[in-house]
Records
---
Amino acid sequence: MSRLLTSSEHDVARAADALRGGGLVAFPTETVYGLGAAARDRGALARLYAAKGRPLDHPVIVHLPSADAVASWAREVPARAMVLAGAFWPGPLTLVLPRAAAVPDQVTGGQDTVGLRVPDHPLALRLLRAFGDGVAAPSANRFGRISPTTARHVVEEFDDLDVLVLDGGPCRVGLESTIVDLSGDVPRLLRPGGVHRRALEEALGERLALADHLLEREAAPHAEPGRPSSPAPRAPGGLPRHYAPNTPAELVAPNVLEARRRELGARVAVLARRPAPTGADPWWLELPGDPTAYGRGLYAALRRLDASGCSHILIEAVPEGDDWLAVRDRLRRAAGGGTAERAGRRTEDGA
Ligand code: TXA
Ligand code: MG
């Protein structure tokens, strides 16, 4: 049974003790809830992978109490990392850097790099300070499922396991952190998130390359800067179906949304940026038209629709452009990487 903890001093100390004892502690961050384990404890990391049902070659992000701790996880801190850490930490940005020798292979997925981040959430920072070292934390969901944005989601997800869950309320960003790989010759965006590409490029004074899986999906509005010849690191969510509901989901252009719904039949739910045309409609969920507010509400909305008993989820496509990049990426994954042509198609790779 997972257990809910509050933000009291006593509960934070208890959570830090649990980490020291090799236990799993879920905690809020500004992006999504993480499922934490002591990042130098191989036994705890093994329990973390087992709890998530995650393949062992999938690296996890190490959460740090402050940027000062980077030196004990990265063998080299490139100048670009200092710039981005200074500009965006604490915040929804993960930096992939050359790993220090002592970082367990379970953290890096056997790669020569490590993902690091200082989260911008008071409760996460209190836990990290009380623990005093890095905490490895993937999103607190079973592998391939929708990331949790409330403590309740986490409890539902790990009902059968012995996990402490610190309750810090709903997450402010609601989508996972932006991941930038700084281990190669050019900085590369691996996952779009709460820190936008444009803001990163402004801070760095140079363009970001896009990971291949983003290039394929994104009819790149920017020109693609030179890519290094070394093979790209395994990218997060390189699996097309990730962050996915159980119910078949499909991305649909706004102008054909209602027609497609009629075509599919009776129990078809809709996630749109406008109210239902017919007034009260229990299976029509509206999210805000602003990308930040939309991102904040997306995962809770997908969970709700997934639990509603509908046969399909139709998701109204969102605008092009950098502001919607992270949302578009998650919607494509929720829909299994496909659009209308792939209606209802299911793949099991992310389960
Ligand atoms: O916002 C977030 O990043 C949340 C919160 C809890 O911090 N965490 C999160 O973790 O989304 P996870 O494990 O669900 O996704 C982390 C992604 C993985 O897909 C992994 O491939 C990528 O980060 N990653 C971690 N270390 C990496 C590395 N060394 N190289 C390339 N990708 C890495
Ligand atoms: Mg995840």
Note: The longest strand covers residues 93-98.
---
Amino acid sequence: MLTASSALTTPPKTPGTHLPTYIFDTSDDVARHAAQIVAGVIRERNSRGQQAVLGLPTGSTPVGVYRELARMHREEKLDFSQVITFNLDEYFGLSSDALQSYHRWMKEHFFKHVNVPQDSIHIPNGAVSLEAIESHCREYEQEIERAGGIDILLLGIGGNGHIGFNEPFSPKGGRTRLCVLDPVTRRAASSDFFSEANVPQQAITMGLGTILEARKILLLALGEHKADIIREATEGAVSPRVPASYLQEHGEATVLIDAAAAQDLTAIVTPWVLGQVEFTDSLIKRACIWLSEKTGKALLKLTDEDFLNHNLHQLLRHHGPAQKIAHRVFRWLMDTIEYHPAGKEKKRIICFSPHPDDDVISMGGTLIRLVEDGHEAHIAYMTSGSIAVCDHDAARIADQVTEYNRMFGIDQERSKLVESTVLESLARKTPGQPDIDNVLKIKGLIRWGEAKAGAFKVGCKEEHLHFLDLPFYRTGTIAKKPISGDDVRIIRELIERVNPHQVYVAGDLSDPHGTHRVCAQAIFRALLEIEASRGSRPEALLYRGAWQEYALHEIEIAVPLSPGDIALKRKAIFMHQSQKDAALFPGSDPREFWQRAEERNTATAARYNQVGLPEYFAMEAFTRWNGVPI
Ligand code: F6R
């Protein structure tokens, strides 16, 4: 939560990059820092009676910045009456009131919360005709010029390095224009449009030339999915393949990122090559595992030469010789392997599953083990997951229930009425339109039924399954409400009722608006409230969502799984039929969910084995929550 009172310290400039880059612990810190810089420009202009000209992006990255600027307006009287804004881009072919239009997005996230005069807001018009587009773009450029140019421009970055919608190999001197979107960009936008096929092919964007003329630029990036491109843009050569790399030539461009987006930078991966570093236990672990992977040698086979040949002189000097360091790290890793993650004495545990399938996908094997070990294993499904069910599945169930009721002589009138409203609303629905309440209920029911069947497969009992249907998720659209006291209360009541010794939480914390992070935030708040009132709280272990695993140096508990465990886990995942074959939100990975889960678990075991630890078939990995709220 952003607060006015918490002081924000600027981290040191990151070494090893060609662009001034600052790494913040959290996405909130990035947002607050960026907002303070923008507010500084506005205040300075206001004090001289001049206008401040802002260049603005949309997307998931700047949401926190807009929220913080709105807070400053509300609580600190930050005055936007002299502000002129120019947005970077807009989808072509969308009217300004379309659900996915950037006009609408900007109004919802920013303009309706601050006092920028209506006629000072400029956003390219996506509804302009093809014939008029050239003159529209020319006028947009002239408006920027008339305003005196852009004082400060905020940018996000696409996974392919685009800024605005300047995709790879866009002209460096380009001006505002109609452009064709890359498949990568359209895929990234697909969840906003409920399918990639609905994403427009084209957009209007400021050109790279327009962008690079801004007097000051802040490039923001959040989350590990940006880590790779951030490394390329800040450490790589300037190249048309990575449009954001042109910022290296700007002079007044700064990069603000969170720790997740920074994770591939040299300063994080191999900081010892950049100068003197303090080798803490965690850095020793990281460096040693890195060296083992780099050399392809087991930890216990590393020699002094390996350390010296890979710039690890300092580590060897202060903590060596090689066998001493390697043995320490080997022991640490061995100690993470745990067959009985909740011990052998009977305990109560709750697995919190943000969506109705995260439980079995991410820790199905561990659930099997916990049940086998005799623990009382509860699963709390935090959201209905209704948004990820296809319309045809909802229609099928509505029809099936009508037939079922007819067959058994149950209340046919009412079921026919529900069926016809459902079918009519689905037939009328345009792409991207939210579902009516009855459809959402049916979709939620489908997922609940699947969740129960999946939980039974791993051995959980029906009375230990809890469907929380948290209010923050109940919007029927991709955009969710912020976490509220009600969400936290529902979780807290469950924890107080079950009184678990241990809870499992989906620890995907880097996507600032992702459902997993919001769920974790609510659970952490509930746990801290419980701790404050009782003086203690259950132990909280974190598991990663379906697609990625913790890095070896991060893992604190690894639960070994046999081929039999994995086969049973697969059956549990299969119970989620609405998410099989062609899920609505599969992301960019062509593999089915069960395949991703299995490859992830066997890869974790292989990684342990590669650094010279025992050879297990598969492993599920966890870290411990450190008690700090997010
Ligand atoms: C949006 C824009 C794009 C986004 C970029 C990152 O106005 O110009 O360049 O900034 O695609 O999007 P998010 O922030 O959603 O990851």
Note: Residues 57-61, 88-89, 156-158, 162-165 surround fructose -6-phosphate (CB under 6 Å).
